[in-house]
Backbone:
């Protein structure tokens, strides 16, 4: 049976310290005239456009001003991200079990790996590249596709049909993520959800959102593989 396995990036596959915040601060100062940090809000599991709007609203910006400058903010954020990456202004952590899990999944013809993340497409791929994980994935759905995270599941399904020649639905779609948003975004589609407590939420917090499965991390990758084969 074919399955579409959708991985979140930050807090699930990897952690990159400081880089995104440095780029965000530089971007908001240049585009909006005020240096802001996305750490002023609860940002885990949200899309980058959603984070930008929430942060700037706290600073008194209205929606019209925020979105009028949105294209400029994306361009500046991506260029600042690259600038700080070249300065080695970051540390990368790939979480336990990630590499053996995706290595094994890649060997299975019926398992189709993709990304589902709130990151912009450009910076999402760059993070995977910096963590030497990009080669495991060929497509995904990103925050630049929609501000609404649940809409990204539909985007991923359409791209999977184009890339894999299979239309996935229901429990044949698996979302693996570290936040309640990762669990909740798949519920309208009836997907299988796997929550991992490697991000900002502990295991008990994640279980309250009733994922199909919950693990402290992906370290016991053989057990995760057995779950994915069901």
Residues:
């Amino acid at each position: 049976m074919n399955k579409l396995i959708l991985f979140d990036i930050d807090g699930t596959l990897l952690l990159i310290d400081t880089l995104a915040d440095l780029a965000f601060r530089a971007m908001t100062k240049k585009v909006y005239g005020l240096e802001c940090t996305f750490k002023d809000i609860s940002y885990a599991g949200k899309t980058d456009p959603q984070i930008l709007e929430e942060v700037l609203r706290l600073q008194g910006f209205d929606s019209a001003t925020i979105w009028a400058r949105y294209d400029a903010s994306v361009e500046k954020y991506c260029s600042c991200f690259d600038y700080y990456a070249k300065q080695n202004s970051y540390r990368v952590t790939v979480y336990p079990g990630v590499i053996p899990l995706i290595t094994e999944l890649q060997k299975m013809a019926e398992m189709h790996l993709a990304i589902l993340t709130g990151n912009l497409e450009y910076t999402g791929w760059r993070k995977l590249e910096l963590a030497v994980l990009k080669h495991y994935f060929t497509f995904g759905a990103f925050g630049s596709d929609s501000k609404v995270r649940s809409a990204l599941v539909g985007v991923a399904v359409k791209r999977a049909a184009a890339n894999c020649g299979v239309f996935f639905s229901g429990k044949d779609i698996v979302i693996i993520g570290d936040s309640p948003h990762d669990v909740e975004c798949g519920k309208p589609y009836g997907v299988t959800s796997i929550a991992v407590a490697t991000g900002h939420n502990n295991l008990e917090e994640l279980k309250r959102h009733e994922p199909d499965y919950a693990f402290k991390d992906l370290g016991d990758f053989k057990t995760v593989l057995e779950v994915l084969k069901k």
